[in-house]
């Protein structure tokens, strides 16, 4: 039986890897909807190859441009095209499987819509859990959705956890989870040279090919901080049971430590098609196209403690998790604004952590009860981050 799939953010790094895996199994999966924001030519190309029923883009102009491209061929003329956030939520409710792979806070409402509609949700958009963890997990439960982690670390933990009543659970058998981190491109760069890092240097990850925003987050280790928060919600664990360990080879994707001292690790080449294939087929296994692991060629695996002086963003994320309520949403919003400013060349690399720390100090932490509360918190943190940026850039100009 084929299952229909909606891919939110199909033109991104996770989106294209998902289409690669899906195309290997035409007997199992049929693409229902694809979505992009501005990359219309790439989306048109994907539509020609995968023939979805629907496509969604970010604006009316982008929809018009896509219509022109798809009308050029009789095979793609029937594809329904829409634009905007409401259409994203609509297609998120429709696929039997939904890959939530839009980058950033903007991806959260559609991921939540898929959870509420009881879909099999493949969650790459970690921001959904960082911003609205309690609401999201509640939506999964009440909607009857199946939530499967795509982040390679969380997918690894999911694979190493024990079963309780047929479901994975970090119950009393588990003492803690160990999230591995590559340490990114600046693990060994002198701390005094961190301020002159360029956007291209920050995006040149040693092991993973990813979108630019998550690449910068990996370089600051904010990505690992967001993953700690994501793990708290996915596995219902307190921060004291979530530890980060640097592992530069990115071969062990994370580990689970049991109370008897056993540590189970999931290993593989650093290629997102493995967690994607795992989550698509779970509990079965399907081929992903990932080349086999050659341990003799890798020869050694190294581990070290993260250096919080070099990577203050990781400490800020733990602080936000300890504070709870809206603090992680504030952290996420401030980081998105600061990373965008860094990528535009407006602030230096080390100023990212400064902006986030300042916004976390300034914006009051409250308890969000509804999606609208989360969106309001997000907006307020963004305003505070813009003010912090204006002061940072004015200070640098003086
Ligand atoms: N890349 C990885 O290896 C990896 C690993 C683990 C987790 N993740 C998570 O997966 C998510 C996606 O990451 P990525 O690296 O695939 O990102 P990416 O390559 O930047 O792709 C992002 C996707 O989101 C779309 N998008 C951007 N802004 C949007 C908006 N305002 N409205 C609707 N769609 C929008 C983009 O469309 P356009 O192409 O038209 O701009 C693109 O399809 C992130 O949450 C990231 O943290 C990624």
Structure description:
The structure is a single chain. The model has no long low-confidence stretch (mean pLDDT 97). The protein is globular and about 60 Å long. It folds into 3 domains: 3-149, NAD(P)-binding Rossmann-like Domain (Rossmann fold, 3-Layer(aba) Sandwich), CATH 3.40.50; 152-270 and 286-308, no CATH class; 324-398, Rna Polymerase Sigma Factor, Chain: A, CATH 1.10.1740.10. The longest helix is centred in the last third of the chain and has 27 residues, at 371-397. The chain is α/β, with parallel strands linked by helices. It has a 7-stranded parallel beta sheet with strand order 4-3-2-1-5-6-7, sandwiched between helices. The protein has helices at residues 13-23, 40-50, 60-71, 85-94, 108-116, 127-143, 152-160, 199-203, 212-220, 222-235, 273-281, 295-298, 312-323, 327-343, 351-362, 371-397; strands at 3-8, 29-35, 54-57, 80-83, 97-100, 120-123, 146-149, 163-164, 167-168, 174-181, 242-246, 252-258, 263-267. The termini are far apart. Bound molecules: NADP nicotinamide-adenine-dinucleotide phosphate (NAP). The site of NADP nicotinamide-adenine-dinucleotide phosphate has 27 residues, from helix 1 and helix 9.
């Amino acid at each position: 039986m084929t299952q229909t799939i909606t891919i939110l953010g199909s033109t991104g790094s996770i989106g294209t890897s998902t289409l690669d895996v899906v195309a290997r199994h035409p007997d199992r999966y049929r693409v229902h909807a694809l979505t992009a924001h501005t990359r219309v030519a790439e989306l048109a190309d994907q539509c020609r190859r995968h023939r979805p029923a629907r496509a969604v883009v970010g604006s009316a102009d982008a929809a018009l441009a896509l219509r022109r491209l798809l009308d050029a061929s009789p095979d793609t003329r029937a594809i329904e095209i829409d634009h905007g956030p409401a259409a994203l939520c609509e297609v998120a409710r429709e696929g039997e499987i939904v890959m939530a792979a839009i980058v950033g806070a903007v991806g959260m409402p559609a991921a939540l819509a898929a959870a509420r509609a009881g879909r099999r949700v493949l969650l790459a958009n970690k921001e959904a859990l960082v911003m609205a963890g309690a609401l999201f997990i509640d939506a999964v439960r009440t909607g009857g959705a199946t939530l499967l982690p795509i982040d390679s670390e969380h997918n690894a933990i999911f694979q190493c956890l024990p079963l309780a009543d047929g479901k994975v659970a970090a119950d009393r058998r588990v003492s803690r989870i160990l999230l591995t981190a590559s340490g990114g491109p600046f693990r060994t760069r002198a701390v005094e040279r961190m301020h002159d890092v360029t956007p291209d240097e920050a995006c040149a990850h040693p092991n993973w090919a990813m979108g630019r925003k998550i690449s910068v987050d990996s370089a600051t280790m904010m990505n690992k901080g967001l993953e700690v928060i994501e793990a708290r919600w996915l596995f219902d664990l307190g921060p004291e049971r979530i530890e980060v360990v640097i592992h530069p080879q990115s071969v062990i994707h994370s580990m689970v430590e049991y109370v008897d001292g056993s540590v189970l690790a999931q290993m593989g080449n650093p290629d997102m098609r493995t967690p994607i294939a795992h989550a698509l087929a779970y509990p079965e296994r399907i081929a992903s196209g990932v080349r086999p692991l050659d341990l003799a060629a890798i020869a050694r695996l190294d581990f070290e403690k993260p250096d919080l002086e070099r990577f203050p963003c990781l400490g800020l994320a733990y602080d936000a998790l300890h504070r709870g309520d809206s603090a992680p949403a504030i952290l996420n919003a401030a980081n998105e604004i600061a990373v965008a400013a860094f990528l535009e060349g407006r602030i230096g690399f080390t100023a990212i952590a400064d902006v986030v720390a300042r916004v976390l100090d300034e914006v009051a932490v409250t308890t969000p009860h509804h999606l609208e509360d989360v969106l309001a918190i997000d907006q307020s943190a963004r305003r505070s981050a813009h003010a912090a940026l204006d002061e940072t850039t004015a200070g640098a100009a003086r």
